[in-house]
Design goal:
The protein is an alpha/beta fold. It is 26% helix and 21% strand. It has six helices and ten strands. A ten-stranded mixed beta sheet has the order 1-8-2-3-7-4-6-5-9-10, sandwiched between helices. A hairpin with a 6-residue loop joins strand 2 (30-32) and strand 3 (39-43). The longest helix has 12 residues, at 14-25. It holds the Pfam family Sua5_yciO_yrdC. InterPro entries: DHBP_synth_RibB-like_a/b_dom, Sua5-like_dom. Residues 14-200 form the YrdC-like domain. This is Threonylcarbamoyl-AMP synthase.
Length: 206
């Protein structure tokens, strides 16, 4: 049965955020709000968390997981970014974008694309997510909370708890969330390739 955390959207309660972060450190799989839509999240090196996300979403081993980072300094520890790409990403963050880039050795092999050795990264523009990342002190391994055979993610924390109570450890609710996943830009070859059009404006990458 998943714990339910009711978090203020503008002034997240430090004690509640600390409790959520502690549960992640202890191996919890959570559902949490972002600036695009709800996501599933767990600790960076949690094989159990990855397996559970794959099971919930019916994902294969070619799926790009995302490291949700607090800021650019943290992002730079996990992916290689050349100068041109740096400028493009810097101008778009924080925001509703996921960038696919070559992974550094800091990224566990199980998170990397098996052939390309890439990983997704993003810096969200969301008060609650940022508070959680600051408390956690490391990226959150994430994937959009989009269930198999459904076209849109769920938008309400209580609805997620009701439907996924048996497979999640915690649900963070800070009010209604969006329904559009992030825009995904693949920079792994140095040029911007739009993989998915979502909540982020694509015009600067076209």
């Amino acid at each position: 049965m998943a714990k339910y955390f009711d978090v203020h959207p503008d002034n997240p309660q430090p004690r509640t955020i600390s409790q959520v972060a502690d549960s992640i450190r202890q191996g919890a799989l959570i559902a949490y709000p972002t600036d695009s839509c709800y996501a599933l999240g767990c600790r960076l090196g949690s094989r159990d968390g990855i397996d559970r996300i794959r099971t919930i979403r019916h994902l294969d081993d070619r799926h790009h997981f995302t490291l949700v980072c607090q800021d650019f300094a943290q992002l730079g520890q996990f992916v290689r970014v050349d100068n041109d790409v740096f400028r493009a990403i810097k101008a778009s963050t924080p925001g509703s974008y996921t960038f696919i880039l070559p992974a550094t050795k800091e990224v566990p092999r199980m998170l990397q694309h098996p052939k390309k050795k890439t990983v997704g990264v993003r810096i969200p523009d969301h008060v609650v997510t940022q508070a959680l990342l600051a408390e956690l002190g490391e990226p959150l391994l994430s994937s959009t909370l989009l269930l198999p055979d459904e076209e849109e993610p769920m938008t309400q924390g209580w609805e997620i708890k009701d439907r996924l109570d048996h497979v999640l450890d915690a649900v963070v609710d800070s009010g209604e969330c969006g329904t559009e996943p992030t825009t995904v830009i693949d920079f792994s070859d140095g040029e911007a390739e739009i993989v998915r059009r979502g909540a982020g404006d694509t015009s600067r990458f076209e």
